[in-house]
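Changelog-linked ticket: magnesium ion example.
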Amino acid sequence: MIINKMMLKLPALSINEAFARSVVAAFILPLDPTMQELADVKTAVSEAVTNAIIHGYGDCEGFIFINAQLTRDGIFEIEIEDSGVGISDLPLALSPMYTSAPELERSGMGFTIMEQFMDSLVVDSKPGAGTKVRMVKKLQPRNLH
Amino acid sequence: MQLSFKQQKNTLIVTLTGDLDHHAASNIREKIDNEIQRGSTNNFILDCSKLEFMDSSGIGMIIGRYKKIKSLNGKFYATHLNSQVKRIFNVSGLDRIINTYSDNKAALKNL
Ligand SMILES: Nc1ncnc2c1ncn2[C@@H]1O[C@H](COP(=O)(O)OP(=O)(O)O)[C@@H](O)[C@H]1O
Ligand SMILES: [Mg+2]
């Protein structure tokens, strides 16, 4: 059973990286997540939002859409979407340490961190149309009444 | 994100306070690089005792400074990692490149 949903539309500004992390942390707080669950979710959200800003939109303006939902049994699902440049070679983009922006001192570890910190990561992208990152994390059932 | 500098035993100690993300990284990078350039010491301790959060933008920033210090033949250490930062160091393999210590004293001893 779904106990809450949220939809957020943010301009692709780097100041919104911290904002998105905080909002999502507040969203899962009613389930009394552990410190590590909270940190994992914040980190994964930070990675996806940052990618939308730097890679999706670059120097262009645009919006980031965040959709999330939480179920009574502790399943947290989130989608982070942009309508930026998209990804032409997805397997390459997903591989650890690959970055298309080494000149910006990127580490190429964003997707690897999302994969490790969440229970599932699915990336849907079309060159020229945008990118949607869908992540799921099962929170330990602790405070579900 | 804020940062402060301290010089001790031929070592530049940089303390980061707050969240190290992409938004913070470029400003932090510039300030650290200026300080490295200005200073007379080549050794570097990144003190993370007040670093609350870091994502992969922090990894890029840290590797960049690490390379700079290495090119000056200095030593680069990180101290006081909290559990979230530790996890990032671990998953990214950063902990295989950079020696981490529980406190600055231990790091200074190993210079
Ligand atoms: N939202 C996005 N839009 C376009 N390209 C993206 C997006 N997210 C990721 N990418 C591509 O995937 C690569 C790997 O991403 P990531 O693992 O986060 O590393 P980094 O951000 O350090 O480059 C990026 O360098 C970029 O080429
Ligand atoms: Mg990234």
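Closing comment: Example verified and attached. The pocket of magnesium ion (ligand 2) is lined by residues A 47, 50-51, 110; B 56 (CB under 6 Å). Chain A has four helices and five strands.
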